[in-house]
Amino acid sequence: MLIWPVTPAHEGVQAASSSSSVAAQSIGSPPSRKVVALSSCEAEYIAAATAACQGVWLARLRSDLVGKKIGAPELKVDNMSAIALSKNPVLHGRSKHIDTKFHFIRKCLDDGKIQVDFTSSQDQLADVLTKSLGRARFSELRDKIGVVKLK
To answer: What is the pLDDT of residues 63-96, one digit of tens each?
Structure first.
């Protein structure tokens, strides 16, 4: 199973109310336009939709390489509102302005191509790539993702 931690900064999304943002780009991906979200919920939702696209593609690639079907990738999202928005097919006032391409995550959930689960901010592994952390927290997350310190 592929587990995909999701953070808006990792996906190049900036919340309009945030004072700073870090934009990361996946290796080998073409340069893309930045997206400005109006809320943290929207920023997390857009990041999850982008991660869903990449996760579905990686799952297909992996199953082609291995020659057998693998489980659906699991997205770890740390915003309950974004999870609710991705699982709720009803378009309401908070989501009607979101570009339709970001609603791809709903179709993936309905088709069983991905799973979306809540993870607390404390357990979000992607923070090591997107936030400035203290030495202890950085070392802890670095160890969890399997990066070793060379001497």
So the answer is: 999 888 888 888 888 888 888 888 876 656 666 6
Specify the number of domains making up the chain: 1
The amino acid at residue 41 is C
Is there a domain that residue 74 lies in?
yes
Q: How far is CA 139 from CA 4, 119, 128, 133, 143, in A?
A: 20, 20, 9, 9, 6
What are the CA-CA distances from residue 66 to residues 2, 20, 50, 59 (Å)?
14, 41, 24, 10
- d(Cα 6, Cα 33) in Å, to the nearest integer? 18
pLDDT at 27 exceeding the cut of 80 = no
Write out the residue range of the structural domain in which residue 86 sits: 3-122
| Mean pLDDT, the chain, integer | 75
